[in-house]
Specification:
Elements lengths: L8 H4 L1 H23 L2 E10 L5 E12 L3 E3 L1 H11 L2 H21 L6 E5 L2 H4 L4 H12 L6 E6 H5 L2 H13 L3 E7 L6 H6 L4 E4 L1 H5 L9 H13 L2 E4 L5 H10 L3 E2 L8 E2 H10 L3
The structure holds ligand C2E and calcium ion (3 copies).
Length: 278
């Protein structure tokens, strides 16, 4: 069969072909979605573990597709990243989130920080910090109310450029968070080198905490490390009261997760934001 060559492989692997076709269809739909602006920003509260006060919101994109319904970012962000479509999508999310925060602020709601995810592709654009500054200027949002989330894998690409970009953002007052901490290639040296404000402990470590065992596992070590580095820590994916209590006992002050609230569209998060706690 090998002699038939590459052009015939689809004959032998029809399922592969089907997957490639699906991808093409999704890619075409995603391009259309950008033109028709089918995206929505959801917001998930970040809360103080002791007081349940809302101290921030994470902006999480959704795709409202007429054909597919509400599509989770897990299903389209990787493709968007590969094709570069993440750049216009990400810039739209950033602008929308900043606009929304400013609007709430003008409506008299006590402002909290908004955290926006930047993909590797978006972060490593050479003018990313000017795009962000321009967006802040246009929307009138104070830089100290913006929190940029990047992952470890984004941060380890081009470390010198990354540090300079982060320092430029930092110098104007933007907050920097390291997302999904512990899932990637972690190195103490860059945690020390980069101007990080917050480290977000990935939900997979939080999930390891359960009532039946007292083993603090890696969470304890991560929290202790942030203390010695003088970086804030936020626990992600907190789903149970036990996990919340356990984290608080270890010295973690801020958390995010279904226990405190799922991501919601702006109009549904607004009453919670007005109240100030969950
Ligand atoms: P992430 O940045 O780690 O976001 C946290 C994800 O965990 C969100 O999934 C959120 O809904 C989910 N989550 C929150 N609390 C809990 C919990 O208690 N339990 C569990 N099991 N999950 C929880 P979502 O919204 O589906 O987003 C998935 C990923 O897609 C994000 O992970 C992020 O990497 C990416 N993403 C979302 N919005 C954007 C965006 O605007 N730009 C970029 N570049 N990536 C985005
Ligand atoms: Ca995130
Ligand atoms: Ca995360
Ligand atoms: Ca994640």
């Amino acid at each position: 069969a090998k002699e038939l060559g590459r052009d015939n492989f689809q004959f032998y692997h029809p399922e592969m072909n089907a997957r490639a076709m699906e991808r093409l269809v999704l890619e075409a739909r995603l391009r259309g979605a950008i033109d028709r602006n089918e995206f929505i920003v959801y917001y998930q509260p970040q809360v103080n573990l002791d007081t349940r006060q809302i101290v921030g919101l994470e902006a999480l994109v959704r795709w409202q597709s007429p054909e597919l319904g509400l599509v989770s970012p897990a299903e389209f962000i990787p493709l968007a990243e590969e094709t570069g479509m993440i750049v216009p999508i990400g810039e739209w999310v950033l602008r929308t989130a900043c606009q929304q925060m400013r609007q709430w602020q003008l409506a008299g709601i006590t402002p909290v920080c908004v955290a926006v995810n930047l993909s590797a592709r978006q972060f490593h654009l050479k003018d990313v910090d000017s795009v962000i500054m321009e967006t802040l200027r246009e929307t009138g949002l104070c830089p100290s109310l913006l929190d940029i989330e990047i992952t470890e894998s984004t941060a380890i690409q081009k470390p010198d450029e990354t540090r300079l970009t982060l320092e430029r953002m930092k110098s104007v007052g933007i907050n920097i968070s390291m997302d999904d901490f512990g899932t990637g290639y972690s190195s103490l040296s860059y945690l020390k080198r980069y101007p990080l404000d917050t480290l977000k402990i990935d939900g997979s470590f939080v999930r390891d905490i359960n009532a039946s065992d007292d083993d603090p596992g890696l969470v304890d070590a991560i929290i202790a490390m942030t203390r010695s580095l003088n970086i804030q820590v936020l626990a992600e994916g907190v789903e149970t009261e036990e996990q919340g209590r356990f984290l608080a006992r270890l010295g973690c002050r801020v958390a995010q997760g279904y226990l405190f609230g799922r991501p919601l569209p702006a109009e549904e998060i607004e009453p919670l934001l007005r109240r100030g706690y969950v």
